[in-house]
Request: fold
Amino acid sequence: MSTLEIRDLHVSVETKEGPKAILRGVDLTVAAGQTHAIMGPNGSGKSTLAYSLAGHPKYQITSGTVLLDGQDVLAMTVDERARAGMFLAMQYPVEVPGVSVSNFLRTAKTAIDGQAPPLRHWVKEVRTAMEQLRIDPVFAERNVNEGFSGGEKKRHEILQMELLKPKIAILDETDSGLDVDALRIVSEGVNRVAASGEVGVLLITHYTRILRYIKPDFVHVFVDGRIAEEGGPELADQLEAEGYDRFVRTSV
Reply:
C-alpha cells in the first residue's frame, strides 16, 4: 500500500514585497484506500498545498519533507513525480492546442508505465472510461480542453485519473463550476478510483456539496496555511452548519 507523508511543510511565494509564507507547517499522511477532504475558506493555502506537491515552480519549499513510499518527492522533477504515482487534477485545466485527447492519454500512459499499452486493450479501456463519464467519443479526437466547457474539462481530468492509475490523486476543487449532473458524474468517477483500494485521494474543496457524493474517511480544516482541526465525515457536517468563523477567529 502506498503512503504519502507530509511533515512540517512550509511554503512561500515571491511577491513584490518579498517572500510571503503561505504554508506554515503542514502535517498529513494519506494512504492508499483512504479519501481525505481538505476544507477551508478561500486564501487558506489549500491550492498552494496541491501545487507544491505537484512541483509548481511558483511555490518555494522553505522547510519540511514529503515522502511517497519513502522516496523524497521534493527532490523529484515534475515528470518524475508523475511517474512515481502523483496525480493532480487542476482547478482550472489548461488547453493544449494541437494535441488530441487520444494522443495525450496514450503518451501519458506510456511515459508513466515505461511502455506503450497494448493498443486493443487500451482502446477498449478508454472507451469504457469515457462512457462511464458521459464523454462523447468524438472528444477523443479534439484538442485537449480546447473549447471544452467547465464540466467537460473536469470530466477529462477524472478520465486521466482513471486511466493513469496513480498512487496518490490530488483533486483541487474538482467541484468548482459544475452543475448538479456533472458533479454527480465526476463524483462517481472519483468513487470508482477510490473503491479500488489502490489510490489515496486528497480532495480539496471549500464547499460541502461534493461530500454528499464522495464520503471522506478524514476531514481536515485548513486555515492560515496549516491544519486547524481534523476529524471524520461528521466534521464536514459541522462546517456545513457553522462555517469557518470559529477557526478563522482562532487563527488570528
User: Anything to note?
Assistant: The first strand starts at residue 3 and ends at 15. Residues 38 and 98 are 35 Å apart (CA to CA). The chain is about 35% helix and 30% strand.
